[in-house]
């Protein structure tokens, strides 16, 4: 039984708030499946699209997704298909749950199928290579909607913990407050508490940048360093993230919130994070290919985002030394020990500038 009645999604009488009763989630990886579970537990009728028919059949038939969320049982009001047209037959909201670098291609295939006026929700945490666009900008371009009408999901949301029912909060950012609130209502359960904000730029950049910082924390752990090193990287990583965000129009307070410090701490500290795990393997001396294997074919977004965020920062004239260092390790074959020593030995300066 869903936790909440469908009445929770009704439009507020006399308001412009859209009702979200039916939702389609495009992408059946760990976060897509977990977010679908949240929506279904909150009483929404949810359909997932999975690339592989066998994954869709397992979700629909056995209410599990053993490849991505072993051990989790999915609610009865969550079904799945690998037919995108069937999945997109009239939902009130569509959740985009594929990795950042594949969003443009995937959305291009779905564009003609998207119902008019559906609320588009983006889960991906990354910056597109080449175009250097945030995910809501990619969605805006491909779907032909205003970038800031997209609801962006951010915050400390390690999928496996939430799928196990552990308490967590998230933040839904959108330029249109009514849309953010509509999705907030649709995803409110006893274990997941969504907040809203209107800082799409800051929320998206925070989500993308923390994956890169998590790589550095993983490397530090893999090299055998302790809590001081990790805390230093988290704090200075947040400083460079906020520097970029503010330059690009973000509200500085966003970086003190769930999308900022919240997600930074969760991802940089948890062995469940794919980005941290990837970094840890590199720190232990493994190759990029071995580290990729360690995350089991799932996406460690920071590996690509360190390149795009570095390019974005260069274009904006913003100094991001940790991101630069991760780029050199992941894409130029630099030795993590040397890169770490160079980070420590940079010119001295005040903490805030
Ligand atoms: N897993 C987590 O705890 C969280 C993930 N995110 C973000 O959500 C986004 C999706 O993440 P996950 O669901 O965890 O990813 P995942 O790697 O677990 O699954 C990706 C899904 O997208 C599908 N897909 C479609 N086209 C693809 C392509 N060209 N390449 C690769 N996969 C493709 C895959 O089949 C799979 O179903 C990422 O941007 C991630 O950073 C955000 C918060 C939490
Ligand atoms: O975004 C996440 C937690 O909020 C998940 O992080 P990873 O992609 O590193 O697993």
From TrEMBL:
One of its GO terms (biological process) is phospholipid biosynthetic process. Substrate binds at residues 125, 274-275. It is found in: Cytoplasm. It is an enzyme of class 1 (oxidoreductase). Residues 23-178 form the Glycerol-3-phosphate dehydrogenase NAD-dependent N-terminal domain. NAD(+) binds at residues 27-32, 159, 274. Keywords: Cytoplasm, Lipid biosynthesis, Lipid metabolism, NAD, NADP, Nucleotide-binding, Oxidoreductase, Phospholipid biosynthesis, Phospholipid metabolism. Its EC number is 1.1.1.94. Residues 199-337 form the Glycerol-3-phosphate dehydrogenase NAD-dependent C-terminal domain. Pathway: Membrane lipid metabolism; glycerophospholipid metabolism. The keyword Lipid biosynthesis applies. GO terms for cellular component: cytosol. Sn-glycerol 3-phosphate binds at residues 125, 155, 210, 263, 273-275. GO terms for molecular function: glycerol-3-phosphate dehydrogenase [NAD(P)+] activity; NAD binding. Catalyzes the reduction of the glycolytic intermediate dihydroxyacetone phosphate (DHAP) to sn-glycerol 3-phosphate (G3P), the key precursor for phospholipid synthesis. Belongs to the NAD-dependent glycerol-3-phosphate dehydrogenase family. HAMAP family: NAD_Glyc3P_dehydrog. NCBIfam families: PRK00094.1-2 (NF000940), PRK00094.1-4 (NF000942). This is Glycerol-3-phosphate dehydrogenase [NAD(P)+]. It comes from Prauserella isguenensis. The lineage of its organism: Bacteria, Bacillati, Actinomycetota, Actinomycetes, Pseudonocardiales.
